[in-house]
Structure formats: C-alpha cells, structure tokens
Write a structure and sequence with these properties.
Helix content is about 35%, strand content about 15%. The chain is of the alpha/beta class. It is elongated and about 60 Å long. The chain has helices spanning about 1-5, 20-30, 65-80, and strands spanning about 15, 40-45, 60, 95-100. It has three helices and four strands, in the order αβαββαβ.
C-alpha cells in the first residue's frame, strides 16, 4: 500500500485480498496522511468479526463462511453414509457486499 501511495497517480480505491490485508492498508493510508474514503476507498473480503470495529469501519465481501462450513460438513456426512461413490456437485453461495464507511464517498 505504501508503494501504491507513492505513485504519481495513486489509486482512489483498493480491493484487498482479505480483511486483515485491508486493515494493514488502512494503517498505511493513515500513516501517509491520506483520508479514507475521501482519498482512498478500501474494500476487504471475509467480513471478519472486527471489520466494523476498525478506526474506519471496513467495507467487505461477506463470503458466508459459516454457511459454507455447514454445507461442507453436510456434504462430507452424505459421502460417508453413501454406499456408492458420491456424485460430484457444485454449490454456489452468493457473496454479499457489506458497505461500511471505508468505501462511502462523501459529497
């Protein structure tokens, strides 16, 4: 993030790999003197339990980790109970954007 902020044309928004990386980016942005979201908007991924407790509440992509774990466990139990080889299946759990202060532009 520090390198990005030193560019001739720094980004006005950053999507981070996960929420902990986004928290580090927030720290670097504040250390540079820039403001969130006025100068740089930030979005993370994962919706970790502390995302809304940061100095600037973090916008994030909620990947429904609990639901994903429950579905995986159920699929495993089904496989263990099956008398034949399981049929591969694909299940999509749509991600959800959680908008908080780190990405809201102020007029």
């Amino acid at each position: 993030m520090r390198d990005l902020l030193r560019l001739k044309r720094p980004p006005d928004g950053v999507f981070c790999y996960n929420d902990p990386v986004a928290a580090g980016a927030i720290k670097a942005i504040f250390e540079s003197g820039a403001k969130i979201p006025q100068d740089v908007a930030i979005i993370g991924a994962g919706n970790v339990h502390y995302s809304d407790l940061l100095r600037v509440p973090l916008s994030t992509i909620d990947q429904s980790a609990a639901q994903m774990g429950e579905m995986a466990a159920n699929m495993l139990v089904d496989c263990m109970r099956a008398k034949t080889a399981p049929v591969p299946r694909c299940t999509l759990i749509p991600p959800r954007l959680v908008v908080r202060e780190s990405s809201r532009r102020r007029p």
